[in-house]
Every structure is written in structure tokens, then in C-alpha cells.
């Protein structure tokens, strides 16, 4: 039997205390990435309220568009260039699982899953696709009853705290805490006032809830709970949309209706003028929600949770266990419609379909027979020449390829290390071409046996300095900028926007710009080029990595690592694997030859830089897929028979 609703309300204070103290580093990192894109927040049932809160926070703090969708809408409307967030307390309902499966195979730039259960089917699905940001947050109260309560307060509070801290809103969060803590107290004067004011509404069958932008979350949750627990009819409108015809309900059915106004500091004057015009014989209740936007949003949710309890008492229904009819259980477990996958004009496997879609920049299903046949032919020819070759060495990019960019300051995963050691032990040659410096040397020395260090060539700072892994003197982190970069480095340091929003690191042959906030790589890219043009700097080029913009001397290239190897091993093929193969990615030059594989972005060239990973995989998982198909015979590397098909 579900929990009594009153018991759920009693746990809210502990849930908020948990949300105030829980570690949010991973959540902040995911929000940092989301800040670069518009956002689609996806939820159903109670989690739909959390989706509305996420949209409010994203638009408020980043200024980027965000929208709410249900899982059914996700299955029908593919979006590109968007950060997708799925929210689910239990992570087990058929709708959210179907939405996750759909989005995983589309491989969006970000897919984040916020779930309240570590052992849920949703979490298990995401672990099979490690590029997904999986954010597990089980609230201390455990599983909700019939209605979402503590999971909802926990999710929304964590999101609000993470957005505030990530966007220099620490003061706003602490101000919100001071207000919310009072509303969670059983002795709260504000809560007692809410209860007294709303008591007159429950004798009427319909309640019109009017709200402003900052109190919308509370209004949305009230509608959800009143409907799901059958407490009464609820209609929602913001103060101005109410004026566009919604008020007519009161003109015709005022005798069975009441008005509940959620009022914030932002819309107080408008709310008062609106309520003054409503006929006096219609019951009206004002729930005052002062404070900053974050405080108002969370307070509106708490108001909705408490009002649900009071309405339930008035009509004799416990919202925590209203009873579920048999047809309701059957409805809950109905599957979403099949994705309606368009039949391909040419029969191809799922790996080939994914490879062609990544390369062409559009789905294989959208192509006619002739176009798809052309891409299929190019793919078949590329894979055939690749798997039939024997390579003298393999050169890996580092960030995004051997280590996940989100965890780039951690050591490489054990499974990646095991495969590298397998290749080295069998006599294969391995090299690294990275935009970073000595941190890569130190990390690799920690995980790779010392007996292999002399044979592992490392190209630091995008190939500017090259040395065996054993050489502790390279790179030279103390050297001043070379002649081509010296004056440009000073000009970049003096740029007011870069000084405020970016961290600049100057090396001998490379200047690195890394955003401190969610300023996108595109913005850094534009500013870098503007300064280069203004200073008339020559002999430099600009590339983008998964986390920074690098400005290097014209002679610098990751291909320098390949050429150094060729000087040692002779003119034999060398395999290159990286993640940023699309111009101006910093692996573009490394992957522009025919002996290359991308684990993420590809170039537009049909004769190079394909991504042949399984659908729904990218980054380190794709690298692992590739190198597990590599074998070493007589010191040369080659793909096993039928690899990458």
C-alpha cells in the first residue's frame, strides 16, 4: 500500500536538508555542458513538474531557449543541436525507458539522465552508453507514494542549487534557503496563513489557478496532483493569459468556481489589479511567495504540496493513496508507439546506418536509394581498405579518445589501459598526440608499465613537442611563447571579455583558451580570430578541442607525431584515432588521411575520418570497440576478420 500523504509531507524538511548538502559536482558539470545549447526537458507524471522547473532554471540562468516534452513527443519530434534531459524518480516506467532508447541512438551532443534509483532499468540502460551524463540522486525519504513529493522537491532543489552555483548565484541560493527552510517548518506562520486563506476554495468543484512566470512550477504541480488524485477540477493560466478569454469561465460558472492566486514579488502589482476585477462573490485565495526567482519557484512547489494535502482532507481523499483502478494499471503499462522507423531505401546494418548518418549529417532513413547507395559504397570501400592493411603503429588523441572529456583529469579507464598493454606486450607501437602537456605524461606513467615508456611517443601541445613517454624533460612548461605567438598572447590577455570569462595558458608553441563559465567554444573561437585579425598575426592557426580553443604556430600539427614515427619505422601505414575530426577540430589534420577513425565527429570527406562505432556509442567506448578489434602479428597491427561490421 502507498504511503499516507501526510507522512510524505513530514519528510520534506529532511529532503531539503539533503538537497542542501549533497555533492553536486557531476550535476554542475552536466549543467555547464547544457548551458552551451537550447534544452529539452523530458518527464511524465510528477517528473513533468521537475521538467518545467529545469526549463525555468535553464532560461533564467543561461538565456537560452528550453522546452518541456513528454516521452511520447520525444518519439515523434527529433531535434538536433539540443541538450536533452530526462527526469525520472523511479527510472522504471515504460515511457521514460522508450524515450531514453530513442535518444541514445540519435547520439545528441548531450543526453543527461536524472534518476532517483541506482538500480533502475533507466540507469542500467545509460551505463551501456557511457557518453550519457547519468546523475543518480536518491532522496532520503525513499520511494514516493502515489504522487511525486520528496523526489520532486529533491530534484528541483538540487537543480536550482547547481544552476545557481554554476552561474555565480550563490547569494541567490542562500537567500532561497532562508525562505524555504521556514516554509518546511510545522510552526511556519506563512504556511498557516496559506491554509486559512485557501480553506474557502474546497467547497467549489473547480479552482482557477492564476500564476506568474516564477510561480508556474507550483501551478503545474497543483494541476498534476489534483487530477491524478481526483481532488477537483483545476484550470491554469498566467495573469495575462487569464485575461484572454480564460476569465469567461467565471462569468458562466462562477457559482461552482474559486480562484487561487500564486503571487511573487515580480508580478504582485499585476496580480492585485487582476484579483480586484474578479466578482466579489467568487472565493479568492492569495498565496504569497516573496523572494528571489529561485526562492519563489521552490516555494511555489512547497505551496502546491501542502495545498494538495489540505484539499484532500476537505474532500475525504488521501492524495498519497487514492486507489488505482484496474484499467489505470493497464493504461500505465501500455507501450509507446513504435518509433515508426522509416524503411531504408537500401538494406544495411545498424552500424552502417549509424556510420552513414554521422558522415552525411542527416539520417540514412531520409536518403533516397541513389544517395544511400553512394554513401554505402563509400563506406564499404573505406572499411575494406582499412581492415585489409597492416599498420606499423597507432596514434591516439587523448582527451575524448582515451579518457572521457568529462573526467579528463582522472586516469584512463582500466579497460582502455588493459587493451593498450595488450598491444604493447605483443610488440605493437603506440603513440599519443594531445593538446595537453606534462599531465598526460604523468598520468600515462602511472598506468603503463615502465618497460614500454621508451617506445611510446607522445606529441604534446598538439604535436609542438615530441618525446618518448620516458623523457621527463619534455614538454618544457617554462619556455616563453615563440615569436609567432608572443605579441598575440599579450593581445589576448588584454581582451576584456577573455579576461573575465576565459582562462588563458601560454606555452612555447600554443596558447590555450578555456571558458570559466558556459561561454561556448564558438564565442572563444570568434574572439580569438578577431584578435588575430586585429593584430595581423601571421604564422598561426586555431583549432578546437572538446574543452578549449588552441592557437598554435603554423608548424605545429598532430601529424608531426605521425611523421616522427614514419622516420623511425619507414613509409608504412599508421592508424590514427581521435574524436574531433570535423574542421576546425584539433584532430582534423590527424584524421584527414585514409588510415583514420573517429570516435565522435567526422569530416565531410567520404574518403577519410569515418566513425564506425556501434550506434549509440562514442568517445572512450568507441575507442575500446576499435582497439579490441586490433591484433598484432609480427609487430604490425591489423583488424581481425569482419571487424567493425
Give the gist of this structure:
With 645 residues, this protein is α/β, with parallel strands linked by helices.
CATH architecture of the largest domain: 3-Layer(aba) Sandwich
Number of domains: 3
Question: Could you say which overall geometry the principal axes of the C-alpha atoms support?
Answer: elongated
Biggest sheet strand order reads: 13-12-11-10-18-19
| Strands, count | 21
Mean of pLDDT? 93
Q: Briefly note the CATH topology name of the largest domain.
A: Rossmann fold
Structural class: alpha/beta
Instruction: Profile the largest sheet.
Output: 6 strands, mixed
Oligomer: single chain
CATH-wise, what's the superfamily of the largest domain? Answer: HAD superfamily/HAD-like
Q: Could you tell me the strand content as a percent range?
A: 15-25%
CATH class of the largest domain: Alpha Beta
N-to-C terminal Cα separation, in Å? 50 Å
